[in-house]
Amino acid sequence: MNRLEYFLELLKKNPNNPMVHYSLALEYFKEKDYMKSAEHMETYLQMQEDEGAGYKVLAKCYEELGEYEKAIQTLQEGIQKAIKHNHPSMAEEMRSWLEDLKNLYSF
What we know:
Blueprint: H1 3-13, H2 18-30, H3 34-47, H4 53-64, H5 68-84, H6 88-104
Helix pairs in contact: 1-2, 2-3, 3-4, 4-5, 5-6
């Protein structure tokens, strides 16, 4: 059983566990299944307060899917969470990425 199968089994047993959704999002991300990764990260973010890392993954999924406005909105939310949880370097990394996205896609 690989990691993805393991987390899918855990999801069947406990669909309301935010960390299972987070883990699935990361596994799907590794496989470049950005749609499924985004679905699980969205669920995780609805269930649990995140400090910023989840927003980075979700924004990258949106960027890869060509949903640039969603990527920008997600980065803006992630910056606020990173600041709230005292992660200034993460916030700065997301700010830089946000500016790059805005410049690349003329937003």
